[in-house]
Design goal:
Blueprint: E1 3-7, E2 10-11, E3 21-22, E4 24-29, E5 32-38, H1 39-42, E6 50-53, E7 57-61, E8 63-68, H2 85-97, H3 102-118, E9 121-126, H4 135-145, E10 148-155, H5 176-190, H6 193-196, E11 198-204, H7 212-225, E12 229-233, H8 237-247, H9 251-257, E13 265-269, H10 275-284, E14 287-290, H11 292-297, H12 305-310, E15 314-317, H13 322-325, H14 330-345, H15 353-360, H16 362-367, E16 385-389, H17 401-408, E17 414-419, E18 422-426, E19 429-430, H18 435-453
Parallel strand pairs: 1-6, 2-7, 8-9, 9-10, 10-11, 11-12, 12-13, 13-14, 14-15
Antiparallel strand pairs: 1-4, 2-3, 4-5, 7-16, 16-17, 17-18, 18-19
Helix pairs in contact: 3-4, 3-18, 14-15, 14-17, 15-17
Length: 463
């Protein structure tokens, strides 16, 4: 097992103290962090370790993306930009996803993971994998890449979205019992694999695509298998209308009805939560995955994140998907999250750079149920570490490194990435995937997808 000494620069452990260690060191032994501290504190214990010079850099915990669509990476720039959610899904996204085969799904996942690793994401939660995307192939890419990921199997048995009934194309519909069968099969095969880096969860389709009986069954299966559940919740106003019409309740009441609140229950967007919903989320340890870029692009609204944080809700950060963001860069997403709350409240003090960095690290680890091993740089935790170079003009001169990270940096500034004590990115080069091949395959598979949907589509006219 290799020992590394990351020496010099600034260390931001995100350990709850909001401390910044100037000219610090992180000592890694195998897959764990052995020591974090100043140069004088750590160097006496570092004999035999390979030295990694991080002078002029910032060392942070690996970023955790709590809401990802792996299969949508191929659709960046394909779907028109100026649509609201339901027509965006109905008329475009589902048309393309509905012609995917397993090789398309694998190519998209590889592209997405390549981008995530290069921009500092070391762990993610995939919202739901349709059987046509090829769960096995995607899991193989996760295993090969070295990233840490939750892969959620789709659960659905209806054809609608919120107030719109029967709008899902036949190519995207799955049978409820077949979803359960595949989940159990994939959980047995993949949960805990890749040295524990892969976990298999339940990924519920949005309201209108899951019957009451399947909701109840999903909650029971999650309890039986001791696994997590993720879903899109209160993303658009139509969701609220559906909850009221179908159940006579709001967001938290809808989830509570089906025993869907609690730890390792991660709900994306939650744009339209009220204070009662937030209090119930906080009381139960339920997580919100905030996706500011996606919500802005689709005109869905602004999630009241600063209120959620004030009330004690665990809020993580998510990049969402290729055609709704259109980036899987969590550093860019942090700036969006910070600035959007200041605009929403007209109060620049309502959220800080520290708050959003915590959302992207500790809160993401808590969402996964892994705060005991991820989310901060502390002795005994997994060595999931990101080194951000502060040498480009856009992040110079070096002043407050946390502010620079959130407001000035981007994923382009990531130099090194370590997962489980192994370098997966070093000097900006991904070591576990062939970048040129992944990009070549992505372009090839997009051509295949377009030819299957409609060979006459001119992407330059969809903007």
């Amino acid at each position: 097992m290799t020992r590394y000494l990351l020496k010099g620069g600034f260390i931001v452990p995100v350990d709850g103290s909001r401390r910044i260690i100037r000219d610090g060191c992180v000592l890694v032994d195998g897959d764990r962090i052995e020591m974090v501290g100043s140069r004088d504190e750590v160097l006496p214990y570092s004999a035999g370790a390979e030295v990694v010079d991080t002078t002029g850099c910032l060392i942070i915990p690996g970023l955790v993306d709590t809401h990802v669509h792996l299969a949508q990476a191929l659709l960046r720039g394909v779907v028109p930009d100026n649509l609201t959610l339901i027509p965006w899904l109905r008329d475009w996204v589902w048309r393309f996803l509905g012609v995917y085969d397993r090789e398309d799904g694998k190519a998209s996942a590889a592209l997405c993971i390549l981008e995530m690793l290069k921009t500092g994401t070391t762990a993610f939660i995939e919202i739901h994998l349709h059987s046509r995307y090829g769960f096995d192939g995607i899991a193989e890419v996760v295993k090969q890449s070295g990233i840490r990921g939750v892969l959620s199997k789709t659960f659905m048995d209806m054809k609608g979205y919120a107030t719109e009934e029967n709008i899902m194309p036949a190519s995207m519909i799955e049978d409820g019992q077949e979803c359960i069968r595949e989940f159990k099969q994939m959980h047995k095969k993949w949960n805990g694999q890749a040295d524990g880096r892969i976990n298999v969860w339940i990924g519920l389709r949005s309201a209108g695509a899951v019957s009451d009986s399947l909701f109840y069954e999903a909650a029971e299966i999650a309890r039986e298998y001791d696994t997590g559940i993720t879903n899109h919740v209160a993303e658009v106003r139509e969701d609220l209308e559906y909850y009221r019409k179908a159940y006579g309740t709001g967001v938290a009441g809808y989830l509570e009805k089906f025993n869907m609140l609690g730890e390792r229950r991660v709900y994306a967007h939650c744009v339209w939560l009220n204070e009662d919903d937030m209090r119930k989320f906080a009381e139960t340890g339920t997580t919100v995955a905030h996706c500011p870029s996606s919500n802005m692009k689709l005109g869905s609204g602004i999630a009241p994140v600063s209120d959620m944080l004030r009330l004690g809700v665990n809020v993580g950060l998510g990049c969402d998907g290729g055609p709704s963001n259109d980036s899987y860069d969590m550093i860019r997403e942090m700036k969006m999250a910070a600035c959007l709350q200041k605009v929403r409240t007209l109060d620049p003090t309502v959220i800080s750079a520290w708050d959003v960095l915590t959302m992207a690290t500790r809160n993401g680890a808590r969402a996964m149920g892994k705060l005991n091993m991820l989310g901060s740089l502390e002795k005994g935790k997994k060595a999931d570490i990101v080194v951000v170079s502060l040498k480009r003009p856009s992040v110079t001169p070096i002043s407050n490194p946390v502010s620079l990270l959130v407001y000035a940096a981007s994923g382009e500034d990531v130099r090194d990435v370590m997962v489980d004590g192994k370098f997966v990115v070093r000097d900006k080069q991904v070591l576990t995937l062939d970048e040129e091949h992944v990009i070549k395959q992505a372009n090839k598979h997009l051509e295949r997808i377009l030819s299957k949907v409609d060979p006459s589509i001119d992407l330059l006219k969809t903007m």
